[in-house]
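User: If only I could read backbone structure tokens as easily as an amino acid sequence. Underneath my words sits a plain record pairing an amino acid chain with its backbone structure tokens. This is the protein in question:
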Amino acid sequence: MKAAIRSGLLALAAASLPAVANAHTGVGPAGGLAHGFMHPIGGLDHVLAMVAVGMFASILNGRALWLVPTSFVVMMAAGGLLGMNGVHVPFVETGIAASVVVLGLAVALRWSPSTAAAMGLVSVFAIFHGHAHGVEMPLDASGVQYALGFMAATAVLHTVGIAVGLATGRAGANAATAMRFGGGAMAVAGAGLLAGLI
């Protein structure tokens, strides 16, 4: 029971880390690496989606533990490059909010597609997240340092999700229920983002 409570609290803590609902305010430390690192962490939408990617990868386990998050980071970097160069990507905010819904549901329902399908799914969403990061790069920041910063922050958030998922998997049925609840809470938060309520 203690493990279930701990897992539930971890999931809720991950879901409520930042008080800010939207990462795209342009507020934060100006400069390459630091600004890039803080940008994903400063928005609830990004935090939830990136932690969910890690939790999703933990459900799939095996090679998916590193292939799914790596796919996200690589395609997010590609999206960031598009944003930094002023290339328009439609429906970015909708895509980001939808990623929270879909990835939250994947965790809640313990969806187990093939690793390739999971990589494809997270890659599509990663382009939206990366584009948002790229568009918000300060004019005086180094593009390389900024990209390394947001990629590093994303990897950290994925690692948090993987750790929560693996710890929950070892803790028994009650903890698995708590993880499903956490995924459902993420999906609800994503729906709130889509509706403009958060």
